[in-house]
Amino acid sequence: MHSTFERGRxxxxxxxxxxxxxxxxxxxGLEFTKDGxxxxxxxxxxxxxxxxxxxxxxxxxxxxxxIGDTETRFTIQSISKVINLAIxxxxxxxxxxxxxxxxxxxxxxFNSILKLDTRSNLPFNPMIxxxxxxxxxxxxxxxxxxxxxxxxxxxxxxxxxxxxxxxYRSESKTGDRNRAISYLLKSKDVLxxxxxxxxxxxxxxxxxxxxxxxxxxxxxxxxxxxxNPFNGKHxxxxxYVRTIRSIxxxxxxxxxxxxxxxxxxxxSKSGVGGGLCCAAKGPNVKEGHPVPMGIGLYGPALDQFGxxxxxxxxxxxxxxRLRMHVFDYRPFD
Length: 333
Ligand code: GLN
Description:
Elements: H1 15-32, E1 54-59, E2 64-68, E3 74-75, H2 80-97, H3 114-118, H4 129-139, H5 145-155, E4 162-163, H6 165-174, H7 176-187, H8 195-206, E5 208-210, H9 212-223, H10 238-251, H11 257-263, E6 268-270, E7 275-280, E8 285-286, E9 289-290, E10 293-298, H12 309-321
Antiparallel strand pairs: 1-2, 1-10, 3-5, 4-5, 6-7, 7-10, 8-9
Helix pairs in contact: 1-12, 2-4, 2-5, 2-10, 4-7, 4-8, 7-8
This protein binds glutamine.
């Protein structure tokens, strides 16, 4: 089925076209949940319903679309890496942050320790575990968990985010690999705080309970260059947000980032809890500017890379239909 906006008028997709596109994406994505598997290396995560799937769209002009499981709470996991990076950029600045962590895609799994020991002293980027642990170490002496939680609530436009104590305990008990990364960074004398304090804050940030809607909130703040479009509050400077979007684009989907960049081409970050946060230049233009769009997805069945299998398929559809790939230069005609 072709949407009306693909040929002739109207110049930009109508609200109805956008709604149809999201409904199709949901239906397409749902088909794939059976091909994925829920993460179980953090035992508590294995309790998620593998068939769950939801998409929430928040547009800068106040529109929203909610389909499927958008109210279910699940843990943010790696998507907290975006928030950690944002806080570091905001409070420590660009130079300081990137003198402690690099900005190169690693091409390795998110929890890999390999290149850290053989090729480099600094972690490759803030979107993999080593880089996020290092980023958290830049913050752990200055911010309490409660303060970090406050930032997360602002960035996700969701005052109801809390710590999921069960997931936190489960990960803390089984997270030896991440603890090893923290100590390896300490042994190289690059970690900026105490390794136990750092890893505890890292685990807590991964265990924040969010919904697809909260991830759409984070997406719209990033798509809207750091400003909450609903209350006009500036959370972080636009230059820092450009950096965050670039790093999400190049590194946000683990070792699938390259292929995702080609197929979807929207700055995104996934987590093993099944969440996906996307910050899109929306398909429509108002007064010469694209209307930003945040898309949050939840589907705990994961693919081999640890990305939500249904969410990736749905985003492929949405990006293609609404021409949201950042390198799609064709105008609507
Ligand atoms: N808490 C998870 C971990 O450190 C986060 C990883 C992820 O979402 N990819 O293993």
